[in-house]
Specification:
The structure is a homodimer.
Chain A: E1 9-14, E2 26-31, E3 37-42, H1 50-60, E4 66-70, H2 79-96, E5 105-109, H3 119-131, H4 138-144, E6 153-158, E7 163-169, E8 182-187, H5 193-206, E9 222-227, H6 237-257, E10 265-273, H7 276-287, H8 290-297, H9 303-311, E11 323-326, E12 329-333, E13 336-337, E14 350-356, E15 362-369, H10 373-381
Parallel strand pairs in A: 4-5, 8-9, 10-14
Antiparallel strand pairs in A: 1-2, 2-4, 3-9, 6-7, 7-8, 10-15, 11-12, 11-14, 12-13
Chain lengths: ~375, ~375
């Protein structure tokens, strides 16, 4: 169902020959209206790929009629020629789809950095994709944007007469991201771009922004939300925002479960923080600690590494009041040894760490993965 | 030679039975004067081990007559009992060495977090170590502080009539550290504690502080500098500071070369920065990027991951003016593709990355290691 679950959208996914192995590598999503409202959130990396620079400009207008996405090349660090290629891609989409303007065509790319896209394959691919646009094309589009993903990721929430659907690729957070994360959400709700923007930012802040697989930030991360208005229903903001958050949360969980080389999904829940910012800072610090991530891989409830990570932050806490639970066992109490660590059962894929700062009422949850030899292998061999 | 290269010092290293495998685990270094001047630098982790809390207090007095160091247990996150144990250890040293005061005995510990030390073995060990104190005991002391170190680390610089020597264990930076880093430096120069403090801080800032093997900060990192004055020579500050810096630099390099599971030593040299702070921030960001560290392991000159890491910083730069050289080949020029990446020879252990921000005259060098399956294995299996 994916991006075509909502009324008013068509999509396609094809193999344009960008990837040398012949796998699908080009996706097209078209908003057939009546509205073209849109919002977008992009990587906060200051080294931005050409498609990000382009799409940021497109989104300033608040209208997106189509999104063209390619895997097989990030078009990042490719200079003026790279930007020209992005521009030419948007022009080609506008030309092939009658009545569209390039300035309303968003572009997303993912793959290796520093390599120009094979435009001689990509531009004919746009024609092929346009010819295959379908109300049932959402799955194929989701498949065509995969890079190291082992499965394609889609999610749909249907409410009273309106729907939010979407697709995602990558594994990581909006920024940082293990690999580039691309997400396209669609809805047939009748909403303006400012409402979409508000709902999208609120959702990504507590979902993709808190999925931190390996602490590395991509040059290409993009999350787009397009609204066709085809349902002719204008939901209440809170209800709409919750639907967007639900789809983002579901897609974020799918990203974590498919992270490169991971054998554990780690939920880092920080409680008792003085502020939400403190909770997020502590959660990220724990989630990015390589020593802890190795310990979790070894099914070792090494709470000392959790405390070490907390100690590097500027959050409000007293070291001798910290408590840590791993899979329900409070292995650290008041900054020291707590319950018997042998009680911790770590056989299952999901690991739940609770870090209690004992400093206030705020909480935050960050998701990450363990650090494995497979992660090292996959990322040592990726481009060579 | 180690800590006994400078006149006025004796040392010992013994197996007290703290480590279950019977390896040496207790070191004692004694300053026989005539001066007892000392300076110390400690982890900036806010979760500090008991010996760090103790030694910070000792160093406030500017005098240290002895240092007792144990491997086989960090005595971190061990609560009031852990602090009592550190105190009792210092008292025992003062009692065994006639005429010493516990308030002038520094204590260092390294090993697992969250485990109380076996005081029934450690305290008798202090007597054994004291009985073996020798002007030739420096090597044995250096051996007794090893944890996952494969070799012991010592360094000596001798100038006109005075000497700076030292020993180190661990692999990492003063803070963060892969494993806890403990360093004891000695000199027979006749200097006051304020001069020692100034020279030590200046040296650690550009050596241990820029050795960042895995971005994880220990609860126990300690660097001490003790001066006996036994040479009766008072060197010029600059000459002394340079000698301390040379010993710290040498020990820091030994730490990197012995980092857990590493197959590459990576020198990240940031040039063209607007400020030294910018250069250090960018260097650390590159040095901590897991994707880049995996690529280097795979001998892949993946400059895109260098640019991604630079882009996450707040340093002054323009993305399209960045240049990156790997082992002498400028693979990235002006933010895009530069010289042929196939020209980069990465067969050797040392890898040299130069990141040119083209934004000013400042520079900084950070040392790190690659990320390997062996690192994952060693840190998955360490405590379980």
């Amino acid at each position: 169902m994916s991006v075509t679950a909502a009324k008013g959208f068509t999509a396609a996914g094809i193999a344009a020959g960008i990837k040398e192995n012949g796998n699908p590598d080009l996706a097209l999503v078209v908003n057939n209206g009546p509205r073209l409202a849109a919002a977008g959130v992009f990587t906060s990396n200051r080294v931005k790929a050409a498609p990000v620079l382009w799409s940021e400009q497109v989104l300033k207008g608040g209208q997106v009629s189509a999104v063209i996405l390619n895997s097989g090349g990030a078009n990042a660090c490719t200079g003026a020629k790279g930007f020209q290629d992005t521009h030419a891609t948007a022009e080609k989409v506008a030309e092939v789809l009658e009545g569209h303007s390039a300035g309303e065509v968003a572009v997303c790319s993912t793959g290796l950095i520093g390599v120009l896209l094979p435009m001689d394959k990509l531009l004919p691919g746009v024609e092929t994709a346009a010819a295959q646009l379908s109300e049932h094309g959402g799955e194929k589009a989701a498949i065509a944007i995969k890079t190291t993903d082992t499965v394609h990721k889609t999610s749909v929430v249907t409410k009273d007469g309106w729907t939010v659907g979407g697709m995602a690729k990558g594994a990581g957070m909006l920024a940082p991201g293990l690999a580039t994360m691309l997400v396209v959400l669609t809805t047939d709700a009748a909403l303006d771009s400012d409402v979409l923007d508000r709902a999208l930012r609120a959702a990504t802040k507590v979902t993709f922004d808190r999925v931190d697989s390996d602490g590395c930030m991509s040059t290409n991360d993009t999350v787009l939300l397009l609204a066709s208005g085809a349902s002719e229903v204008t939901p209440e903001y809170e209800e709409f925002a919750e639907a967007v958050r639900t789809v983002c949360d579901d897609l974020g969980q799918q990203l974590i479960r498919d992270a490169e080389g991971a054998s554990k999904d780690i939920k880092v829940e920080v409680v008792g923080a003085a502020t939400e910012d403190d909770a997020v800072e502590v959660g990220r610090s724990i989630a990015r600690n390589n020593l802890l991530k190795c310990a979790i891989h070894g099914e070792d409830p090494n709470w000392g590494r959790v405390l070490s990570a907390i100690g590097t932050t500027s959050a409000a806490f007293e070291p001798d009041r910290l408590n840590v639970a791993i899979n329900g066992v409070w292995v650290c109490k008041n900054g020291g040894v707590g319950e018997d660590r042998d009680k911790v059962d770590m056989r299952y894929r999901e690991v739940h760490i609770v870090a209690d700062l004992a400093a206030g009422p705020a909480t935050a949850t960050i998701w990450t993965n363990d650090l494995t030899a497979d992660y090292v292998h996959e990322n040592s061999a990726y481009s060579s």
